[in-house]
Please model this.
Amino acid sequence: MVKVLLWGSLRAHTDGQAEIEVQARTFKEVLDRLAEAHPGLRPQIERGVSMAIDGRVYREAWFTPIRPDSEVVVMPYMQGG
Amino acid sequence: MAFDSHEKRVFKQVGTRPPRPDGVDKVTGRAQYGADVTAPGMLTARILRSPHAHARIVSIDTSEAEAMAGVKGVVTGRDFALPEDAGLADIAVNVMARDKALYDGHAVAAVAAVSPAIAKAALKAIKVQYEVLPHVTDVDAAMQPGAPVVLEGRALESVPAGMSVNVTHASEFGHGDLAAGFAKADRIVERSFKTAATHQGYIEPHACLASVTVDGKADLWCCTQGQFMVRTVCAALMGMEASQLRVTASEIGGGFGGKTTVFIEPVALVLARKTGRPVKITMTRDEVFRATGPTVSTSIDVKIGMTKDGRITAGEARLRYSGGAFPCGTVDMGAMAAFAAYDLEAVRTQGWNALTNRPKEAAYRAPGAPQAIYAVESVVDELCQILKLDPLDVRIRNAAKKGTKSSYGPVFDDIGLLATLEAAKAHPHYKAPLKPGQARGVSCGFWFNFGGNTCVSLNVNTDGTVGVTEGNPDIGGSRASISLMAAEELGIPYDKVRTIVADTASLGYNDVTDGSRVTFSVGLATIAAARDAKTKMCARAAKIWGIDEEAVEWKDGAAWPAGPNAGQFPPMSLAEIAAVSFQTGGPIAGHHEVNADGAGVSFGVHLCDLEVDPETGKTTILRYSVFQDAGKAVHPDYVEGQMQGGAVQGIGWALNEEYIYGRDGRMQNPGFLDYRVPVASDLPMIEAVILEIPNPGHPYGVRGVGETPIVPPLAAISNGVSRAVGVRMQELPLSPPRVLKAIKAA
Model:
């Protein structure tokens, strides 16, 4: 199981939980499991999110591996200028 | 690709300052910008724009214009497809209004004619019947119950029930127990701030030329930060397949984020398809101001608690942004960035975006961060003043570092903030005495930096030269940096490498030039492509020598036999291998395609000495220093240029730049005479101090540098002005009338 930290405004769709545990080995599996467990998250996930894995921010890297002890933070999709 | 930490690399090319490859073309006028492209039989198009801030379009009668001699085509919103995707649909509606004009300057129709004069005259013959609606241009007013409704039904699921219909986004970040944190503070300061919308102010207005053949193939030449983005958006709006639309990016006279979307390109394409002739559109400066760009306008509350000895115990911010007439997520970036420079036990930021009758926001260097960090850094500075603490010492004491849980969630890896703060403190600027009436402002800045989709081809020519083909318009010197990294990796001189920017038919997809990504991502892909080519060249040498490929290594620009059984052969240089490439297997090329991650966040610290004329309120910048971590400065001239350019643009935001709206909701200052950007005579030389803390996510340690330097100037200057006049300033810009009013009220 991987602990996934969500940004605050997503907690409205997870019964107030800031941290969710999911069975996942990759970036994509984290998002798939989150959307299955908490369908309210699906619109945001489909619009796009970033994910910090052990401090490195990924934007669309489906197959980035995640270890059970990885620090995983779901963040808004990053955009720059 | 991770940092090459296994070898102590001594750079030979990277870190030098060769002349810029585009310099001669630009100073001799040979460089082809967007408006320089022409085609036989070309028509000129002009766009009719709404004179109202908010109005229902009852009808548009184009018959008289269409009947004019020399007019070849007229289009309105009905001529554009409306994609299902909400983001693309917003771009389509921004490109050409449909039911409503949403801001002063919103396009409502366009004419293509045989001359600019006829096109301009034809605009006057178009009859638009408007029903003028109530408008709102202030973000706080837009969030009030009963505010004029810009668009309905656009709130994301994150927006709580009961908020104004104009609120589209809501977000929250942070950790820890705020109440407990504030309870530990010896002093708490809570302030509210406002910042004006500002324009990217690029010198080159938007321009494009579109050509569509009768069998549906199209070419588009345009001034953009991303030709592949233009292809994606325009193909969707035109109902075309991507392969049928080739987009070529011109040289670019500045973008700063403002050219990461489309405005006129779909209009030119639709007119070209309708008329069967090439169509060119060049925006006027008035149009650039009224219908492109600008940043968000903001209203921000910040509350920070601090102990007597300068430890921040808690921080809280509430950010209200408006990205104009369409939904905009920039507030998320501001809410994440606000407290990023600090190692905090308790922090919370909340953000909302509200629709207003302003142009659709476009990205501008570190979008959303300068405003949020201005507010936070202002309150930190005020606490330092109240508690009589050194502002750099306080920032050093609270600085985020490796292992810090950032205010937006992840734990930081190697970051350069502390080194940057310490460099600022040790610099002679910080110790220089100030004269009476002068003051010094300090601020930190932060930006995330991105990587993204990148594709590079590297071709080894038979004469021993190398061509690198990349897909990102060169805004800040990337062709020089990419050539330097290719030369470094191959071990050949810089002047043997030429880097060009390809069109969309010649290379795989590349994300736009944004997010401080190009030197990082394209550099990373170029290094990988060069390694690919080196592997192939080693294989060719192995064939020539009749030994195993594994027994050949690349060193100092040549293939060498390596290992105990490799045999004794003289090394073969790149030129020698290339010269016989046709005989040894054909042309040699390296490629790399990647969605790059690991860009590594960036921090900067700015020092600003200034004085304020007590009679006029005018601020004069006396001395300005920028300290920033570049990871590895590939071409230090360009890195310094980014640091100086960002600082100057930030000085403009801080002192003068703002969208001014009249009571009628129309922009009052759409020109450089009334929208005042800093010019050279307004500024001292900006001293740029580069620090190099390698980014672990790049083989050479490179970090993006383009966006962070626009972040600190807002607070550095506001903090300086506040100390100079003895009043805490809370609104930008600090134009002379605003400062004078504060002085008189004190």
Summary: DSSP finds 20 helices and 27 strands in chain B.
